[in-house]
Inverse folding.
């Protein structure tokens, strides 16, 4: 979004408040400045000069969890999400809590594998003792071997099609077994599978921190890499990555990964779920939730109460980020429930076991 469109979007707001109806941060905080309307009003005031950029203002704008619940609620058609993103670009130097992450992100982008290797060592030495005494939230163990450690083509003698995998950072570094589960499903169904080593972060964390240029650079790398591969679909196990590539890449670089597809969409479209077996256990399927420190915990606890009321013994999600959030809430509330990704359930139903 350029400055001209940004200004145009801000003046569209008629203060009706329709955007607050589904805003999770507003419904949690019950504070006008923590809702979509309030944020648009504050950005408009900053644009007109009646409100100066500040750390306090940046906290309000960066507290939006970018869930997109307000996307289709505005009667005047404001692109609220993109307007928030652009506001963050203008406020990034005032966001004190994000400065360390911004510097770390710029440093780590060119060498993700090396950075995660270092973080894995620090996690073993410093994180575990602090986590055990409740000083730090749950963070999955960083793997020693990323899912996309090398480029590979998994051949299939009964080949019925060819697909590639866009893993996303969470699967690559925290949950590589999910990549293994997806491979098992696809190979069992007769697909040839391509894994590309050169994949980089989708750019969502960079945009969230107001680092637009960095996000653009990542988008261009991914588009160039994946649009060269011969495959009928590029499958993604993370809905955030899928959304960013489908909706935001065209806005950022006027291009996208042409055949990107959420893995569940592919399963339904190609009848992968019709395996002749029933998935085990009682399932509670949730879509997605994004995190923002204390606020996200409050939102997460609401989800936790909903889940507890079902008496389900398994929670299934399609989002690796949700898995981290729910594991953290689970440990805090001592909820007795298994948290798994959809591909694990499907793999167990089709193949009889989960990937190691």
């Amino acid at each position: 979004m350029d400055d001209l469109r940004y200004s145009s979007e801000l003046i569209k707001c008629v203060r009706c408040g329709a955007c607050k109806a589904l805003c999770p941060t507003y419904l949690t905080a019950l504070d006008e400045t923590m809702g979509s309307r309030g944020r648009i009003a504050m950005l408009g005031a900053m644009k007109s000069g009646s409100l100066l950029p500040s750390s306090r203002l940046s906290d309000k704008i960066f507290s939006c969890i970018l869930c997109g619940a307000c996307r289709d609620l505005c009667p005047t058609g404001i692109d609220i999400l993109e307007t928030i993103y652009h506001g963050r670009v203008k406020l990034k130097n005032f966001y004190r809590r994000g400065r360390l992450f911004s510097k770390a992100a710029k440093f780590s982008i060119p060498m993700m594998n090396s950075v995660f290797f270092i973080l894995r060592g620090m996690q073993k030495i410093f994180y575990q003792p602090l986590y055990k005494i409740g000083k730090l939230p749950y963070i999955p163990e960083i793997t020693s071997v990323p899912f996309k450690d090398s480029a590979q083509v998994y051949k299939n003698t009964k080949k019925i099609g060819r697909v590639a995998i866009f893993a996303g950072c969470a699967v690559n570094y925290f949950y590589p077994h999910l990549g293994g589960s997806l491979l098992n499903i696809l190979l069992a169904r007769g697909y040839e599978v391509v894994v590309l080593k050169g994949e980089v972060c989708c750019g969502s964390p960079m945009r969230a921190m107001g680092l637009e240029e960095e996000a653009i650079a990542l988008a261009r790398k991914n588009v160039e890499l994946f649009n060269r591969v011969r495959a009928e679909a590029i499958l993604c196990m993370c809905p955030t990555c899928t959304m960013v590539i489908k909706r935001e890449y065209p806005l950022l670089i006027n291009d996208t990964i042409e055949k990107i597809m959420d893995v569940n969409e592919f399963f339904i479209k190609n009848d992968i779920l019709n395996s002749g077996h029933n998935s085990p256990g009682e399932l509670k399927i949730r879509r997605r939730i994004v995190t923002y420190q204390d606020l996200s915990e409050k939102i997460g606890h609401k989800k936790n109460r909903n889940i507890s009321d079902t008496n389900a013994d398994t929670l299934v999600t399609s989002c690796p980020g949700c898995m981290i959030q729910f594991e953290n809430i689970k440990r805090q509330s001592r909820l007795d429930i298994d948290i798994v990704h959809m591909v694990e359930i499907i793999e167990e139903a089709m193949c009889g076991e989960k990937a190691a």
